[in-house]
Write a structure and sequence with these properties.
The protein has five helices and 17 strands. It is α+β, with helices and mostly antiparallel strands and 317 residues long.
């Protein structure tokens, strides 16, 4: 689950999707798909048993974590704990992906994820984070990120990003993937495949001494080469006992200073669009939707900088 970057552009008004599309239409071939023009009904908050360890924001409404400052260097014990939370998040995500089928609602996927996380003695990190009402994020087609699970049934040809974060033994693990629902058109399939490849190549760049801005510079070149746009308003972030912290991982060209060091843990989570990069946030305060109605895809991993390179913490195999 990413967050809005401190320095990034974002249309900040709350709006309705129907009014939003008056701003413009995507240029070029964006394929065939159902645009999301309204959000559905959101079910009541799901319960969390007393014995489950909970983050501080469960008990008190707190603002999102601060992503500015000096990144934390994790100890061996912290890294071992993050391996466990990352592995669990990846496992739950894989299981949720199998439920991304025609006719199933995103609320049903949320209910499944919620119960599986609790069964694993963990807490679903998005729940109550800065007021978020559900246990995972589900973002369909032209919803860029932070979609709230609701009663809409998945349709043939949808693409859906499912974002899972768990809090286990005091540490968060965060990952997401975009899944194909039924028969997805060629442009949609291209977008999903290209976004996954982009993340994989970003991770391969990471190592001790590499500047964080190399990630954004690569994404900028990649989008130019593939005729895509990076939705720059949302960033990767440091993670640990906190959900969001430094460093900020910017998914666009930048020259901001800072180098990777062994023991740092952070997410990389590019959102790539077949249209433009501009988004707005709907009236629910969370759902980020493209201004031109174009589809986007996102993939995310939590990674560790090691002495020789990287380790992906959000792999379940």
């Amino acid at each position: 689950m990413g967050r809005i970057g401190f320095l990034n552009r974002l249309i900040r008004q709350k709006t309705t999707a129907r009014n939003l599309f008056q701003f413009g239409k995507a240029k070029g071939d964006t394929g065939k798909y159902e645009q999301i023009v309204s959000t559905g009904l959101v079910s009541p908050e799901r319960c969390v048993p007393e014995e489950i360890e909970k983050p501080a924001y469960y008990f008190k409404n707190l603002p999102p974590g601060n992503t500015l400052g000096t990144p934390e260097i994790k100890t061996k014990d912290q890294i071992d704990a993050m391996r466990l939370s990352g592995r669990l998040a990846a496992k739950i995500l894989r299981e949720c992906g199998k439920l991304a089928t025609v006719g199933r609602t995103t609320d049903q996927i949320d209910a499944f994820a919620h119960e599986r996380i609790l069964e694993s003695k963990a807490y679903p990190s998005p729940l109550r984070y800065a007021g978020f009402p559900k246990s995972i994020c589900t973002s369909i087609n032209n919803i860029a990120c932070h979609g709230i699970p609701d009663d809409r049934q998945l349709a043939n040809g949808d693409i859906i990003n499912i974002d899972v974060t768990v809090f286990l033994n005091g540490y968060h693990g965060d990952c997401s993937e975009t899944f194909l629902v039924g028969d997805v058109d060629e442009r949609g399939s291209f977008l999903v495949e290209a976004t996954k490849s982009c993340l994989d190549q970003c991770i391969s760049l990471c190592a001790p001494g590499v500047e964080f801005n190399e990630i954004g510079k690569f994404i900028d070149r990649y989008c130019d080469e593939h005729d895509l746009a990076s939705i720059a308003a949302f960033i990767g972030h440091g993670i640990g006992s906190y959900f969001h912290g430094p460093p900020e991982i910017l998914h666009y060209y930048n020259e901001f200073p800072g180098k990777m060091q062994p023991g740092m843990t952070f997410t990389i989570e590019p959102i790539l669009s077949l249209g433009g990069a501009d988004i707005a946030v709907l009236e629910d305060g969370w759902t980020a939707i493209s201004l031109d109605g174009a589809r986007s895809a996102q993939f995310e991993h939590t990674i560790l900088i090691t002495e020789t390179g990287t380790e992906i913490l959000t792999r379940d195999r």
